[in-house]
Fold this sequence. Notes:
This protein is of the alpha+beta class. 28% of the residues lie in helices and 24% in strands. The termini are far apart.
Amino acid sequence: MMAGSTLRKIKSRSWKKPRHFRLLEDGLTIWYKSRWSSQFKAKDIEAVREGHQSEVLLSIAEEFPADLCFTLVFHGRQGNLDLVADSPEEAQAWIQGVRKLIHKAQTMDEKERLDQWVWEWFKKADKNKDGKMNFKEVTKSSVFVVVFLKHSIILFLQMADKSESGSLEMKQFVQFYKMLTQRDEVWKVFQDYSGDGEKLMLEELESFLRIEQSEGEKGPQHAKELIDRYEPSDTAINQAAMTLDGFQMYLCSPEGSIFKPNYLELHQDMTQPLSHYFISSSHNTYLLEDQLRGPSSLEAYIKALKRGCRCVELDCWDGSDGEPIVYHGHTLTTKILFKDIITTLKEYAFKVSDFPVILSVENHCSVEQQTVMAQHLRQILGDMLLTCVLNGQIPEQLPSPQDLKGRILLKAKKIGDVEGCMDETLTEFSDEEEMTNGDSDSPTKENPSADKKPEKLSRELSDLVVYCKSVHFHGFEHARTHAKCYEISSFSESKAKRLIKEAGTDFVQQNKCQLSRIYPSGFRTDSSNYNPQEMWNVGCQIVALNFQTAGLEMDLNDGLFKQNGCCGYILKPKFMIDPNIHFSPEKPEGLIESCLLVYQVISGQQLPKVNQKEGSIVDPLVRVEVYGVPKDQAKDETTHINNNGFNPVWNETLNFVIHTPELALVRFVVEDYDKASRNDFIGQFTLPFKCIQTGYRHIHLLSKDGTAIPPSSLFVNINISEFT
Length: 724
């Protein structure tokens, strides 16, 4: 693998091109020759799959045996890379080699990551590739020149050039880099608590943690653990002290992050009814792109499930050979087999989370092919599929995620109730909202109410619906007197918004005992998304989004579900589950204490270039956005810093009053300011208000796709207090 080899890159049955792949000297980057030279880093790879574990490789299975094939799966929305080796031995060398690279990238500590980043800059600036960087190469490097005056660079170079050779080797360059990147803002905080200006003794670090970080209750043992964990100097460790390097490493670590580390773990009560949780949910899960012509793919289900999605959608239609298919009906989207999706779900449903997966079935199939669907569900899923009520009891409330661990639930129409069954088929006028998933205004779907054809359900499929029986919504008054806990209604985004405006409190009350599903308008043919916050404000659990589309809406979804172990279930606030509390998102006063949120945006570090042209430098600004109940919707931003994405310093304070903290999400956005056009996106980070750690914290930025872009970060000081 180190020397490189030629592999076939496969895009389709007809597109199979040999490409030379090799590992670069940094040990973490793979280069390959395409029409243009391309490369990717080990940190970008999520996993390696052996054999025919992609639709493309399955399509060429007769031509290439499984032991020659493997797939590189990337983080975020980047497409997979399907490869074929010349021999099983070569395939295994690459498979095992890449897995070692992934492990190495995942286990690097903060110091190792920084060292790697510095090494990459050294290689980039070493134009003549002699393993040294002469003064001319440094002063021509736009990264440094735009941040520091040329004479300052020369001075630092001379200080680092101990041998007076006029060039720097790698070790000397690291010293030069440290001089350039001395972070005065961190040094000042360090100096405030250091008695001798050189180190923080144990009691001094404990004082910092108590006063600034609100971690006083953890005591001196916690301070000692931080020294042992982050201090690079053995001498300082023996003195129970932390140097500036160790202090900076702590601030950049998960414990110095803005996100409370214990909230990242599974920590919520998972024994309450399903209706008491927000559930990570996907719309038209099978699509990778738009709603009209895009490809349908099993990979879309895998990616959604790996992001913690717990409710996936299948639009089922009759296949020409008796096998049900899934696609966006009456469009040019490609088709995939229902049974292949179920096989994929069996393998991937519980890799990220043990809690239940809901299959939301939009059923357009004949009775005969519905029966085939039922057979596939039973035969492929086996005991995973929930086919009867738990404990043989007629439910008065929905079971909990804990009760349903490792189970798959079917959401669809049902003949009769859970309490008893009716005739073999149910004939009724079709329900426009349910049968078209609410897209009666969609240009891509027929309106089934036009001819009022009766719908027939297969008894075999109907019997698999237990706790998620799809029903038409007849109004909140009807629901109060007639609804069963296992019934679920679906609402288009426009209908949901109308109900929220007309009867928000009633919507909250209904969602305390029943599930509600919201889905995008049929006019969103580009797979864009609506803002889910408005739906969460009234307790809607299954707020389905197009997972394939990056942007604000998915940032909010990812931010909400990042907590609680990314398990896909988030317990709603008490005022949204207690039947005796009547909460209105329009008038939340009196139920919750308001908070004053104060952000001091101090600085940024190594913000990536948006425009990759040589010499292009960003003019960064930071915007803080709050999403929650209507009174909490707010945003404010810093001024922009001219020509400095390397180490911009703002030292600006932004204030927000949060009236309903339990529902609020906070999004940090960094943009490249442009006075002549729209600002360019650089990075963002979104998290629930209740997950924020106060004090001096780093915010590690994410790309538009939601993947990390180390070492890019913001340094902030956060204070939260009661607002009166």
